[in-house]
């Protein structure tokens, strides 16, 4: 049974904390309407420090952790345990500085189709597994996102009120 849950930009620390409470459970990622195959591999964990200028000419800096998943079927393997996933991350942390407060992004491919970027929902226990719902990472306009966060809940678009149009990017 594959129930989709609202995704948020969870951090690496949030993910590892949830895993630590349930290390024996199989870790099952769901994306594009299906579960990842039991033979999946964590093929890469990388840390990025980014500096950018957004569309409103505001400087932006952030940290992000990318976990690459190779969605394959391999023999009679079962989904890896949450503890094994945590052990892989710990091994990477021996060689690469991983910021626990960094946003977590998953890169997923079956080795044939192009890699896709996903944000992750909070891991939940469901049907005897620790499940993580992955949703496509959408583009966003940071000035608009900041403006919306400051508005009363009844306002839905930064470009609707004429007095706010300067807050939007062109």
Automatic annotation (TrEMBL):
Domain of life: Bacteria
Pfam families linked to this entry: DUF6428
Name of the molecule in the record: Uncharacterized protein
């Amino acid at each position: 049974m594959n129930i989709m849950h609202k995704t948020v930009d969870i951090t690496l620390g949030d993910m590892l904390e949830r895993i630590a409470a349930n290390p024996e459970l199989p870790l099952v990622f769901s994306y594009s309407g299906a579960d990842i195959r039991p033979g999946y591999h964590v093929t890469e964990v990388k840390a990025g420090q980014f500096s950018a200028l957004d569309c409103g000419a505001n400087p932006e800096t952030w940290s992000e952790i990318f976990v690459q998943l190779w969605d394959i079927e391999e023999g009679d393997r079962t989904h890896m345990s949450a503890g094994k996933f945590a052990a892989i991350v710990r091994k990477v942390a021996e060689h690469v500085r991983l910021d626990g407060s960094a946003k977590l992004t998953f890169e997923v491919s079956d080795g044939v189709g192009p890699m896709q970027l996903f944000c992750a929902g909070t891991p939940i226990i469901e049907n005897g597994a620790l499940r993580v719902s992955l949703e496509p990472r959408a583009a966003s306009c940071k000035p608009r996102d900041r403006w919306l966060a400051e508005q009363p809940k009844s306002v839905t678009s930064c470009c609707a009120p004429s007095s706010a149009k300067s807050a939007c990017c062109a």
